[in-house]
Design brief:
two-stranded antiparallel sheet, alpha+beta, globular, 7 helices, 264 residues, five-stranded antiparallel sheet, Aminoglycoside 3'-phosphotransferase, Chain: A, domain 2
């Protein structure tokens, strides 16, 4: 909307308002709900969100079924969703530790979810310890002021390991990015090691820093292969992202020993 910060999702009437960002695109806001095209995975994801909310996670959207046009319908989480380039406050320690705590809450709450007849958009990754969000990153986080208060875009959720989910969060928020990657923060290695340990402590003892780094490298290689396939299928603009993910994977693997070094 003219004259408005594009990262702020405004309070508007019941007309359709396209929402920026997200991992799928095409989401619109209508009143207090968000609508997007449904898929075969939608009933499973809605059932999963309902389970999470029944466990007390009020920072995830409330599933509202399908609308009259057959679209996926969720409650709208008010606040700011940061878009690249991220503002400086996204890199504050409080954001990192809150994200780690919320992911821990997610994984604990999801352990009782009934996986029977589940259909997921993205593959399961063994060991399937928990249900992963799979895109727990700043562009899917909702903030009130500078406080992390919600997480959106659950369409790519699927079973996987704790490290798999945490590795991608660390990649985006520690971050594990090559200094040439404009989407990261070119912080010294010692600072990134400190932030990795901070994230690990906020999450809990189940996933030590070396496991987080190893999972991040594996995730980046898989993401590069997936993006390369999409580029070959008629999306050549994605080729630059393939190179970026592979470069970040190489950088993270090359500096793994320094990243896991205890800052104390």
């Amino acid at each position: 909307m003219p004259g408005m910060d594009p990262g702020v999702r405004a309070e508007t009437d019941d007309s359709e308002e396209p929402l920026p960002g997200g991992n799928m695109g095409g989401a619109v806001r209508i009143g207090d709900s968000v609508r997007r095209v449904a898929g075969a995975w939608t009933p499973t994801v809605q059932r999963f969100l309902d389970h999470l909310r029944s466990q007390g996670l009020d920072w995830v959207p409330d599933p509202l079924g399908l609308d009259e046009d057959g679209r996926d319908q969720l409650s709208y989480l008010p606040g700011t969703v940061p878009q690249d380039p991220f503002p400086d406050w996204v890199w504050h320690d409080e954001v990192l530790t809150t994200a780690g705590r919320l992911m821990s809450e997610l994984h604990r709450a999801g352990t009782g979810f009934d996986l029977g007849n589940a259909v997921w958009q993205t593959p399961t990754h063994e060991p399937a310890e928990v249900v992963c969000h799979n895109d727990f990153a700043p562009y899917n986080m909702v903030f009130t002021g500078h406080q992390l208060t919600g997480v959106i875009d659950w369409d790519t959720a699927s079973p996987g390991s704790r490290a798999w989910d945490l590795g991608y969060l660390a990649y985006r928020l520690v971050p594990f990015t090559d200094p040439t990657n404009p989407e990261g923060q070119n912080a010294p290695l010692a600072e990134r090691a400190r932030r990795l340990w901070l994230l690990s402590q906020a999450y809990g003892p189940e996933v030590p820093p070396p496991d987080i780094v190893a999972a991040a490298v594996a995730r980046l290689h898989e993401l590069a292969a997936f993006t390369d396939l999409r580029a070959e299928e008629g999306n050549p603009h994605l080729s630059s992202h393939v190179d970026l993910y592979r470069r970040d994977a190489r950088w993270t693997a090359a500096h793994a020993d320094e990243l896991v070094r205890h800052p104390g």
